């Protein structure tokens, strides 16, 4: 079996490529940076003279909640259209996100039919929802996977953001710590990608670890594994929201000279303050997905 992987030089795409090689399959690694078999920015248009592959796992895209709206749309929607056009005859596995669920209300063991929703307050959720609609419209036989908060070796978003928020021995989080969250290890996500690529299922599937965890427990485990002596302090949403608004305004004023994202965003606040859990029954029964529990063991070397 020959599998093409977009975003192969990134966190999830790279993990998929390594797993494909361990399976003994042939992999075509597509990415913008060095190390890819083929250098390709999916926003530039369809791939010229694409080789034949049996399946595509589409991992490339923008995962920032602070990027320019136009940039989000180009990467997540127009880029997905270019990947679809490049491999019209291959099985298609689209890695989406749980951010397509309504961020304005709690997500409590949500089933796949509860998203996409009509409106999103952020460009990331809106662009990923539009990409899902595009995939399902053009390729009804495709598989769409919805992970939430992907973590693990090579993580460039979630873990760095948590650790970067530690200030003077404290990590400030939103809510009260008792809210449940579904997390997705990159190993579990890769497992789902390979099951989808080799099977004949179609449709949308939530992909998470075996069971939800408490946010307070997850944050404490990350800090302990990394040896960070910090206390987690929780603040209510009513206080965190104006702070996030102020942080985003300050970030925009600083402009391009400020390389990093704001310490707090409205997107992060809405996702942390409420329960975010997903029902993975469909993935278990249809894909044969058997996830492992949430674990940050080994995070000291991530």
Automatic annotation (TrEMBL):
Its protein name is NAD(P)-dependent oxidoreductase
Q: What is the lineage of its organism?
A: Bacteria, Bacillati, Actinomycetota, Actinomycetes, Pseudonocardiales
Which intervals hold domain NAD-dependent epimerase/dehydratase?
Answer: 4-207
Highest rank taxon of the organism: Bacteria
Q: What InterPro entries does the record tag this protein with?
A: Epimerase_deHydtase, Lipid_A_modif_metabolic_enz, NAD(P)-bd_dom_sf
- Pfam families per UniProt: Epimerase
Transmembrane stretches in the record are none
């Amino acid at each position: 079996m020959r599998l093409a992987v977009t975003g192969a030089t990134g966190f999830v795409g790279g993990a998929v490529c390594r797993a494909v090689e361990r399976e003994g399959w042939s992999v075509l690694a597509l990415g913008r940076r060095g190390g890819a078999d083929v250098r390709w920015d999916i926003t530039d248009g369809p791939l010229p003279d694409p080789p034949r592959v049996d399946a595509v796992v589409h991992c490339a895209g923008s995962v920032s909640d602070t990027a320019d709206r136009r940039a989000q749309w180009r990467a997540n929607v127009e880029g997905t259209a270019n990947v679809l056009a490049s491999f019209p005859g291959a099985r298609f596995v689209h890695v989406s996100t749980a951010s397509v669920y309504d961020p304005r209300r709690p997500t409590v063991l949500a089933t796949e039919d509860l998203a996409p929703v009509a409106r999103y307050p952020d460009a990331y959720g809106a662009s990923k929802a539009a990409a899902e609609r595009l995939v399902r419209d053009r390729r009804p036989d495709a598989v769409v996977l919805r992970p939430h908060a992907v973590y693990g070796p090579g993580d460039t978003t979630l873990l760095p953001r948590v650790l970067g928020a530690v200030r003077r021995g404290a990590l400030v989080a939103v809510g009260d710590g008792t809210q449940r969250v579904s997390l997705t290890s990159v190993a579990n996500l890769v497992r789902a990608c390979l099951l989808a690529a080799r099977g004949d299922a179609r449709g949308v599937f939530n992909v998470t670890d075996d069971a939800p965890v408490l946010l307070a427990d997850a944050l404490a485990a990350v800090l302990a594994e990394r040896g960070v002596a910090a206390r987690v302090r929780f603040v209510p949403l009513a206080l965190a929201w104006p702070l996030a608004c102020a942080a985003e305004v300050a970030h925009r004023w600083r402009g391009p000279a400020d390389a990093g994202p704001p310490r707090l965003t409205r997107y992060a606040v809405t996702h942390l303050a409420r329960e975010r859990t997903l029902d993975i029954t469909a993935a278990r029964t249809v894909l044969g997905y058997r996830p492992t529990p949430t674990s940050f063991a080994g995070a000291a070397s991530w």
